[in-house]
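Sharing a chain and its predicted structure for anyone who wants a worked example. Both blocks are below, sequence first, tokens second.
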Amino acid sequence: MSNGAPSPSTHTDLADLGRRLYERALVRRGEEHLTDPRGRPIGWLLDIRIPMLDAAMFREVGQVLADRLRSKGVHQVAGHGFGAYAMVCSVLAAEGSPPFSAGFVRENRKPHGRRRLIEGPLDRREPVVLLDDILNSGRSALRAISQLRKDGFEVAGVMTLFNFAWSGGKAQVEKDGIWVDSLLELNLREDKQDKSDPA
């Protein structure tokens, strides 16, 4: 039984999905005022929430991520940051067996209630994969990995929609003994044109 578009299964299918994700997420200066974290103007950014909050794209991406995770024998995911919320939920909604468990990584342990650092029904006896929308410098991913480990979880890998290949974040994460799987490798600085290749 299918609840949406079939999961892309070939290199060509994945390249097409990647292009559509990229085109939907790309926001350029001129469309609106864009700044980096320090408040300086920038020419473009990728807002993953735009495609991931579209129902059809949500289902399609979730199925691709779920299939890739199951092929690695992983059935638990955790998200860190606002960009990962839709990704985590899309994996939970994907068809197939066994189903996934999921959680979210807090910046700091909640000071009241259950006082959790990691929210959700994750099992510390099973490996977990961190989901993130974009891998850039790797600092955010490594921070989330550290939080998961601090709470007793084994982190097997990091799965992202986009990896900014020029920034070195993938190498930083892999240096920590964790695999990285990105749906698309973006190499925009190689020829100063928008270029993407499926991972």
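Comments welcome. The chain has one domain: 55-198.
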